[in-house]
Each structure stands twice: as C-alpha cells, then as structure tokens.
Amino acid sequence: MGQITLKQVTKSFGDVQVIPPLDLTIEDGEFTVFVGPSGCGKSTLLRLIAGLEDITTGHIEIDGKDATDLVPAKRGLAMVFQSYALYPHMSVRKNIAFPLKMAKMAPAEIEKRIANAAAVLNLTDYLDRRPGQLSGGQRQRVAIGRAIVREPAAFLFDEPLSNLDAALRVGMRLEISELHTRLKTTMIYVTHDQVEAMTMADKIVVLRAGHIEQVGSPLELYHRPRNEFVAGFIGSPKMNIFGGSEAQKYGGTKAGIRPEHIDVSMTEGTWNGKVGVAEHLGSDTFIHVHDTGLADMVTVRITGDISVRHGDTIYLTPQLDQMHRFDAQGLRIA
Amino acid sequence: MARSVSSRRKLINTGLAWAIGLLIFFPILWTILTSFKTEAQAIASPPLFLNFDWTLENYGVVMERSNYARFLWNSILIAGGSTILGLIVAVPAAWSMAFVPSRRTKDILLWMLSTKMLPAVGVLYPIYLLFIQLGLLDSRAGLVIVMMLINLPIIVWMLYTYFREIPVEILEAARMDGATLREEVLYILTPMAIPGIASTMLLNFILAWNEAFWTLNLTAVNAAPLTAFIASYSSPEGLFFAKLSAASTMAIAPILILGWFSQKQLVRGLTFGAVK
Q: pTM to 2 decimals?
C-alpha cells in the first residue's frame, strides 16, 4: 500500500513561500512524475513527502494515516538521490543491507533480500566492491537496490538519472519502468526532463513556482494542456505559440500548434517563411522557420528527410484539429 | 595548470626551499648537537659544529637526576586524554554546525576562534583559583580538562571543515534508511570523516604536548609533563647548556618522531578544504 495525500501543504523558507497551499493525491501503485523548470519546487515537494524538510502548514497522509510529524525513517518511504548518496566506506552488500540493519532485521532475512535485490538489478558480481569501483549506472542500481530491499510503501526518486550520460539514461529509464511494472509500488519521480516524464509516468504533475499547473496522464497533457505554460513545457520540440491577429483568426488571444502538426510545402500553404536552421536527425527533420509573421521562429517537424537550404521560402499549413487556443489569462479555450 | 619552469629556475627554487627549511630547523638541530657535547664544548667560541667529542654523558646525567619516564607518561596521558575528550565534545558540536546551521553558526565559530586570540595569562588567575577550589592543582585530570578547553576551538573548526565536505545527501539517505541520529553519526558520518578526525587528533595531540604555559603553572610534581621536565633544567642549571639540550631533546623526540611519520596526514589536515 502506498497512497499519499497532501492537504493544503505549504512550505516557506524564512519569508519566502516556495510552496503555496497545495492539494494532491497520489494513488497506490501509481507512477507519478513531478516535472517543471528548475526552481519550481518539485524537489522541495518530494523532500516534504520524504520528511527531510518540515512542512510549514498543512497535512501529509500516507495510507490514510497522518504522517505530518513523522521522522523520515518512520514514513516507510525509500528515496533514490540524484547523487546516488551511497555510503562510500561500505561495500555494495553493506550499502544495500544498511536499511535492513537499521530495522534490526534477522541476518538470514537480510542475506536473502540482498540476494534477491542483487539478482533483480544485476549486481550479484559486484556485492563486495565499494561504490567508488562502480560505474555511474551500477551506482544508480545500488541506490535503487538499497531502496527496494526495504519493501517501502513508496519510492521517491529525486532526478535519479541526471548524472548519467544520455545512452545510460535511456537504459535506466526502461529499467525503472520495468521495476515499477514488477513491484507495482507507488513511485514518485522528480525530473526536469519532460521526455522522462512522458515516457515513464502514469500521472504527470506539472509544477511552476510551487503551483500545480496541471495533473494528468502524459497524453492528456500533450493533447489537452490546461494552459499556455503546460502547452509550452510538454512536448519536444516545443509547441509554437503565437498571438495577435493571426491567433484571433483561430479563436483565441493566443494560439499554439505543435511542430509535428504543421504540414510543409515548397509551393503553397497558410503561412510562409524563410528556412533558418534545419536539424537532420535521419528519422525526423526539424526546420526552424523565420519571418512567418507569427513568432520569431516557428519550428516544424517532418518525418523522414527533406532537402531544404538556408534562406529557402517554405510554406506551412497547420492541422486545424490540432490547434490549441488560449485566452488572455493563458488558459485553454474549449 | 602547470607552468613551465626552466631547470635552472627549478634548481634555485629547490635550493631556496632547503635553505629556508634548514633555517627553521636549525635551532632544533643545534639543540640536538649540543646535547652530545661536553659542557665546555657547548659554550665554546667559535661554536663547534660537528668536530667535537660526541658523548652520551649528558643523557646519563639527566636520566639519573630525574624520572624521565614519569614526565613522559604524564605528557602522553595529558595530550591523549585531552584529545579524546575534545573529540567527544567537538564531534557533535561540529556536526550541528555543519549540517543544521543556524543564523548564528558563523558568529559562534568566529567567537570560539577569537578566544584563541586572548592572552592565556588573562585567565590564569581565575582558573588557578578554580583549580584550588576544586582540588585540581597538579592533577592530570585538571590538565586534561584545561588542555581540552584550550584546543577545543581548533578541534571544532577542523572537524567543521571536514564535515562540510561530506555531502548532506548521504546523511539524508541514512535518515531515510531508518538510522537514528546516533546511528547516523556513528555509522555514516564518523567513518567518512576518519581521515579528518585522524589529522585533527594528531594536531591536537602535538599542540597539547607542546603546551607549556598551563602545564608549568598548574603542575608541580605529580602531573608534570615533559614541558615541566625541560623547564626544571633551565632555571637552576641554566648555564649547563649540554644537559639542558639533552633534556630538551628527550622531551621533543617522541613528538618529533610522531610528527615525522604522520606529516602527510598533518599537511593534508591543515590544508583540507582550501582547494576544492
């Protein structure tokens, strides 16, 4: 079990309120991702749930029980830190055993659980090494191993992949997702990387300046962003958002269209502009178009390859059913 | 980044470094040399450097006249005891300053250090009176306490610097893993800070060993350490330079040897945190 409920939680550091009153429920077994730009309060929120920071006002409930004043150890949560936070003076085995030792578990049971965790995480051959002798990915797995042996009510991940290189990150992303499928334990995952959020989450919580901008499944956020901020934050490359008379034509103070929802032609279309930089990825081509009269730059995503040169005139046609409209406050219309 | 240094320049620098090193070490070297001379040769003019009749006579006399072993034992007890007691007080203090600092932590640290600027003699009178009242005069326990108090600011400062280098996340991980405060300090913080604690202990041991003001003023016979042993040769027999030198050499030898073997640790300890 691992349902976590935040009720009117606030956090202030001195006079600065970093989390204004916030309500959120994370269901048992759910993979929830907190995502937002740096400084949005997502890590603070995670640390409040962990108990590493005291909340200023409000309540935190874990499985229906008030955990507001519990110390971290008593909350039954396990955390994986960005820097792995392994104990450098202990072997991998001792690192993984540490939470069990602290819980005064029987040595035989500890051994059994270490063996299990090591098998799951491919660490069996490394149990007697020190963290310093492991690669980044292995260290991350030890940190996860240390978390899973306790069989916690929920796992908290604080940007666990940001110290890994790109290739390893994709691999670990999959491993964590698989782990969630297998354990079915509640996971809360903090990241600033919206690709991680989109690929891993059951539920994404988009935060900005301590506020929850939107809560929803990845595809809900992609297809129906609640406001301009979410629209711009979710999706890569970013949604093209423009205002003015062109936006009014489509029925909003501002309008947005994702790069993948624009059709391209060299001869005719709704808008035209000059090709700036074209990024060829092989599978896709991103073209940055200038002088369209919409925004400084409009990004278009084309499947496959297309040969355009810098300065070419290019015609763009938005797919009207994929157009997003926002009012003066930046909120979604319809 | 390495700067290119010509080999001639390097030679000059090396020579200069040796010259300065010898200059600093010279008084100690001279003391050691003098301890092997006869009294007449010790005051010979011009001074004799190596071409004298090497003799162990002075050591014999010194050993005969005073109980060197007792002074040595007192020195070890006082320096060791004050170091251990200091650590017991300083580890929790440094922990709280490094990991749960308050708005006043920096001020408290500076204030602690400022007490080291105070001339010791300023508090001699009150401490002497206190010692009489408490019956601590000429007791090892009394000296252990005074030495600990004198060096505490330095121990706290050094440990604080070391602890600051330990990532807070690791301690937080221990907290998440269910460690109590005591377990966190005992199983995680202390083992990780061992190199720092070791050099702190070493430095404090040396400082306490060499401390003369308090040991001379607060001891007479029973608790007198090696500093008092040297002093006892300086006043009544001030003119007997060779014997005084022998006594001095015997007093500084243990700490010199200890320092020599642990100089790597010591240098690391003193420069720790300066370069990240």
A: 0.78
